[in-house]
Amino acid sequence: MRKSLSEKVSVSILIAPYFLLFLFFIALPVISAVVLSFTYFNTMNTPQFIALSNYIYLFTNDTVFMQYVLPNTIVYAVFVGGIGYILAFFLAWSLSQITRVPRTIMAIIIYSPSMTGGVLLSTVWKVIFNGERNGYLNYIMIRFGIIDQPVQWLQSSKYLMPIMIIVSLWSSMGVGFLAILAGILNVDHEQYEAAYIDGVSNRFQEIFYVTIPNAKPQMLFGAVMAIVNTFQSSGVGVALSGSNPTPNYSGQLIVTHIEDFGFIRYEMGYAAAISVVLLVGVRLLSSGANRLFGEN
């Protein structure tokens, strides 16, 4: 009995730091956001309970959210989250087919933009898409006669979203990509041989019947990371355009909308309501990824 009690105490001591971190940095902020979402709070006065008014206004009267933010977020999520995830798997699978040294070098090259994306975002990409004549893209296109006058790429509602998608895809190969690569590399090669004996005849069938089933845990992790990173990447449009809201709301995403109301207009209750909607959306998409890649 003493041994059992001491084991419980030891386990509790080991778990305590992680439990406290989870409590103070995840659980309490989420609970606070849910509570504030039912109030009007301008950070100056005491929060006033207004029931579901914030949610009703969000889905019925917030035309910016319904006409711009939600469609922009869906488009951004499909390209950066969906296509970015497929691209991460394709790159990981391609690297698994080459020898160790070049694979390591290429993996570092592909992964490095995810670590330095914020710095390079304000240096490389803003120079490339600079609206002046000396901007790299404008200079090249004028030099070859494609355009006559410089284009304001980052201030145009026509081009801002595609540029955001390009920049985000460039820096999206993070830990999810490395996890998928690790999962593919850990597949037992004897299973590939057995699969070809059983009737697998090409690489596509090999990927579908052997690689994906064996790398499901890593692919689930990569999918969840892609979902989370996609919906929390708000600074791309703001950093590129230099303003929040973005020009004509063309690059306005849900998190950008939250920052607009929370930290510019100081309508914390309404910003909290949008945050709760975003949390529910991320949770539903994560559950879908778990159903797709999770183990039975």
Essential attributes:
MetI-like fold, single chain, two-stranded antiparallel sheet, mainly alpha, 296 residues, 74% helix
Description:
It is a single chain. The protein has helices at 2-36, 53-60, 63-96, 100-128, 136-143, 160-170, 175-185, 189-197, 203-214, 216-232, 235-241, 254-264, 268-293; strands spanning 39-40, 48-49. The two termini are 36 Å apart. It has a single domain (63-293), classed as MetI-like fold. Strand 1 and strand 2 (48-49) form a beta hairpin. It has 13 helices and 2 strands. The protein is globular. Helix 10 packs antiparallel against helix 13 (268-293). A two-stranded antiparallel ribbon has the order 1-2. The protein is an all-alpha fold and 296 residues long. The model has no long low-confidence stretch (mean pLDDT 86). 74% of the residues lie in helices and 1% in strands.
- In CATH, the topology is named MetI-like fold
Helix-strand pattern: HEEHHHHHHHHHHHH
In angstroms, what separates the terminal alpha carbons?
36 Å
Counting structural domains, the number is 1
Largest sheet: 2 strands, antiparallel
Mean pLDDT: 86
Question: Which of globular, elongated, flat, extended, rod-shaped describes the shape?
Answer: globular
Number of helices: 13
- Total E-strand runs: 2
Strand order of the largest sheet: 1-2
The CATH architecture name reads Orthogonal Bundle
- What is the helix fraction of residues, given as a range? over 70%
CATH H-level superfamily: MetI-like
CATH top level? Answer: Mainly Alpha
> Which class do the helix and strand fractions yield?
mainly alpha
Strand content: under 5%
Please mark out the parts with pLDDT under 50 across 5 or more consecutive residues, or reply none: none
Computed over alpha carbons, the radius of gyration is 24 Å
